[in-house]
## 1
Amino acid sequence: MAPNFQQIYMTPAKSKDKIYFQWDFVGRTLGYMYSVNPTLKNLGRGEKEAWDDAIGRTVMAQGLILDTTKGALDRMTESTYPDQMGRHPEFGEEILELAKHLTDD
């Protein structure tokens, strides 16, 4: 991620590794959540679909971050960004601990 440190806000990343891939995925998930009434009451069809998508994406994000086989997220990243073949930074302990609680009620 070092090549990205000097870039200005909203500039496409120079280095797109699995950390970037996950950051982008979670950011898009937040976009779904922002379109939903936070009380979750009287949701329209579009809001219900957005909420269901956000929940599904949250479960997916948790699974990708906590994947102990270290395969799925690496393969997804490499298929989108072939230059990342074999270059896989690991998530730190803080991120792993937070990810464990993504699906808590």
## 2
Amino acid sequence: MAPVLSLLAFLSLLPATLASPVEPRAPSKCRDITFTVSTTAQNRVANSPPADFTNPTAVIAFLLQPVAFQTVSGTQKMYGQYCEPTSNNPLRANTLQLLVPGNSYGHTYYSAFEETPSSLASSWAAFANAQGYPTLAIDRVGTGRSDHPDPINKVQAPYQVELIHDFIIQLRSSTKLSIPTAWKKIVWVGHSFGSILGTQMSTNHPGDIDAYIQTGIAIPTPDENALPGELADVYLQASVYDPVRFPSAIYTPGYLVATSKEGCRNTFYSRPLVDFSPALYDTDFKVKDTLSLGEALTQNFYNSTSYSNPVYILTGQQDAVFCGNGSRLLGNPDCGSGATSQLAAMKVLYPAVPEAKFDYYAQPNSGHCNQIHYTASAGFGKAHAFLAKQGF
């Protein structure tokens, strides 16, 4: 299926009750797992890759090059952190939340950059565990503790989707990977590029996922382009910028990292001090992960014509990546409200999803990384109330 939209994006209040009661239990236990996935995919041909993203002319030429495809195959190791629920809800014991982060982030995005999720106010994983859901937060191939193959020709969206598809087959069919069950239901929780991958997954493999929570995503208006603002994040070769964190033997040319702390804050966050913790942002920037040139080339929404299960869109009201020009310095981003909002417009990608199974929430006072803002728990509550309403 051809993409219907190509992006240049690189990338607090709980509800009074949730539908399913939960019984308190012992604190969650998290464990590391590593699994092997194999696939063949149709990736883009990536000609004339720039050394980094400091030359706008070279970047634009790379991103707008003619579309051609090449077949790639591989077997990779992928890392995930599996966390048990902190409350006992038998209805959710066989429902796994699969957490898929976006560009520049690894699995700790879903735990507010803690190695063990704990904060109900800023950790999606901790909140979900408290509602009785097991979670599995992954490092996509090319990030974190997962393998780092060719960042230009291999680490692209089509390859990522097919690798995760192989993983989902394993999750459905056996008790491999040190996970205690063969899952009956899987909920995809994506952020940004992880949500873009979700649109591609629901198109290529509509039966893989039982519900999607798509965060940090919206349909840009015709006059919105995130590239100008994101260039101010100053993406440099990771191994050159920080050879200790990103050794050249692993992070070959084509793995980039954002190096401007101010630029990233203006791209990914809303108002400093007012809307998010400066200390938490300091941690975010310190642990920031990589972007591959191949991922930058394949930021495409797909039209999921055959997928008909629930979809929920959760995005910050002031998301500069999808509802602006990539930076708060280039205007005041606003995703709109109601049926005419850029979140509601996401329904066009899911024509087979009934209206009763589609909903959205613009998290107030929040930028692109909505989970790291003070209003995060409002978004967590809304999304989980939607899941409960849909029978999850």
